[in-house]
Design goal:
Helix content is 68%, strand content 10%. It has 137 residues and is mainly alpha-helical.
Length: 137
């Protein structure tokens, strides 16, 4: 398999992991005697904000489109945006429960989504490092 196909498979694997992460448990919290856990998909669906789900899919989809179009730099940019989105999600949860006696932990969805974002970023870095998608001279 040539390096171009390898990079494309890596980035598309990151997209698949991100889609799976939307349906897995994002966090688990217990406070005031109640246990709460939710996924990104179900949390935003319950609130009627299904458009926010596309926010988590926009960067991986665009990175996948650019890798199919054989563009390296946009893949890195969208990989970084996706990593930043997961980092922002981390800080949001920590700030939301600040000052309240809460036992909080991230679920599998958080880690799978973060892994998907890192894999997309690595796909872009590997594309540059190996010279993938370059026209031979």
């Amino acid at each position: 398999m040539d390096k171009n196909k390898k990079v494309q498979i890596i980035v598309l694997a990151g997209l698949v992991l991100t889609v799976i992460a939307l349906f897995l448990t994002l966090y688990k919290a217990s406070f005031l005697g109640q246990n709460v856990s939710d996924s990104i998909f179900s949390a935003y669906s319950k609130q009627g904000k299904t458009g926010y789900i596309m926010l988590f899919l926009a960067s991986p989809i665009l990175a996948s489109v650019f890798v199919v179009l054989k563009k390296r730099i946009p893949v890195i940019i969208f990989g970084l945006l996706q990593c930043g989105l997961w980092a922002l999600l981390t800080s949001t949860f920590k700030d939301q429960f600040k000052g309240i006696k809460v036992t909080f932990s991230y679920g599998a969805g958080f880690y799978v989504g973060l892994l998907g974002a890192v894999i997309i970023l690595l796909g872009g870095i590997i594309a540059i490092a190996t010279g993938a998608f370059k026209e031979p001279k």
